[in-house]
Amino acid sequence: MTSASTPPTPAGGAAVDELLDPAFLAGVESRPMADVRGLRRRAEQEEVNLSYTRRLLQGRLDIVRRELQRRAEHDGRSLVDLLPEILAEKGRGPAHGLGRHQTVQPAAPERYESWVNGLTRGVDLSDVAGLPDAELEQAARALASAEGSLSERRRGVQQVMDALAGELARRYRNGEADVAALLADEARH
User: RsiG-like domain: which residues (predicted)?
Assistant: First the structure.
């Protein structure tokens, strides 16, 4: 487990830090259209990467929490028996995403899996049922804390995407941009 004195690198690392820096959007109104579209694509890619990472993290957190609950309730079923129930729980609650259509895939998924696994370094989550309560609770705290931070960063990236989309929409609305040029540019990407 990462020690308390060494917090994990924030989700998305330097690429997301750059997007969240107010300087990223500074002067966007005067930048060329191709630049604004490029900035939006960068933000979209990082949002997809963060969403993927969050799904990985949330799956582990759901399993760890359910195992803790199983133990507290003295539920005799195995964690494997409970997996369909654990997986179905996500479908019963309200959606927390913004329903964005994703047009790109996560870049380097192994990097995000490694980041999530690093959150519980020293705790083998492949044998959740065999872990002592203290290690499970420690893993749950680390995963929950990281999930909160990741979600906050993801919301920030979504706000950047929205600001860039708003700038693009403003240009089209005011006649500063040409839809035919957009379609030609999009065909190249």
Answer: 26-87, 124-182
Cα–Cα distances (Å) from 179 to 9, 103, 106, 147, 156, in that order, read 40, 19, 28, 39, 28
Contact between 60 and 125 under an 8 Å Cβ cutoff? The reply is yes
**Boundaries of every domain in the chain:** 13-22+31-188
What is the tens place of the pLDDT at every residue in 93-112?
444 445 555 567 888 889 99
Longest CA pairwise span in the chain (Å): 66
| Residue 84: both structure tokens together | 């369909």
- In order of 6, 17, 74, 128, 172, the CA distances from 139 in angstroms are 15, 25, 20, 10, 49
Separation between Cα atoms, residue 75 and residue 164, nearest integer Å: 50
> What is the rounded CA–CA span in Å between residue 41 and residue 26?
17
Averaged pLDDT for residues 7-17:
89
Query: What separation, in Å, do the N-terminal and C-terminal C-alpha atoms of the chain show?
Result: 41
